[in-house]
Design a protein that fits this description.
180 residues, alpha/beta, Rossmann fold, 2 domains, 4-stranded parallel β-sheet, two-stranded parallel sheet, 45% helix, globular
Length: 180
């Protein structure tokens, strides 16, 4: 048995909670896993330009609010540094993302991780640069303002980031209700 399948079965017997499906034939493995009583979480990747705010917020909110059914990750086209405003507004709602690292979406493509959904949370032009992922993946576009472009005092930028966070939460809740 290859390493990918070994990992699959070890995860199954250890947790009965599936996060990583073998990249080859994920639909088949979902059926096998369900047959043996495993709970299959839908895998979601949130992508934005720098993986510094919007995608990090979306990942954290989906895992926190709907982690029983979804497992989210985030990545960026050109990873930067975590936006301190994003960290602060997430702490306001009890979610700590201060230790999160940014990651490159192309690194995820290289290791051939499969996702059920890839959701871009950046502008249309940037979303077009997002790479294709293998497997049965649905691409979705949600357009949110970039906090790095917010202007004004720190408090004004913080307020704009709160509005964006709340819009992302609303979109996630609505989307999860629609697909469950």
């Amino acid at each position: 048995m290859d390493n990918e399948l070994d990992s699959f079965w070890k995860n199954f017997f250890a947790t009965k909670d599936l996060i990583h499906l073998p990249a080859k034939r994920p639909g088949f493995w979902r059926k096998v896993y369900s047959f043996f009583g495993g709970k299959i979480k839908k895998r979601v990747l949130f992508v934005c330009v720098h993986n510094s705010a919007r995608s990090q917020i979306a990942e954290a909110l989906l895992n926190y609010l709907h982690g029983d059914s979804f497992y989210a990750q985030s990545a960026g086209l050109e990873p930067g540094l975590l936006n301190p405003l994003a960290v602060e507004v997430m702490q306001e709602v009890g979610i700590d993302i201060s230790n999160k690292k940014t990651q490159n979406v192309f690194d995820l493509v290289k290791i051939d991780i499969s996702f059920d959904f890839v959701i871009t949370v950046c502008d249309e032009a940037s979303a077009e640069q997002c790479p294709a992922f293998s497997g049965e993946c649905e691409r979705i576009r949600w357009n949110f303002a970039d906090p790095s472009a917010f202007v004004g005092s720190k408090e004004e930028r913080l307020q704009q980031t709160r509005v964006m966070r709340d819009a992302i939460k609303e979109k996630i809740d609505s989307w999860c209700s629609a697909i469950k």
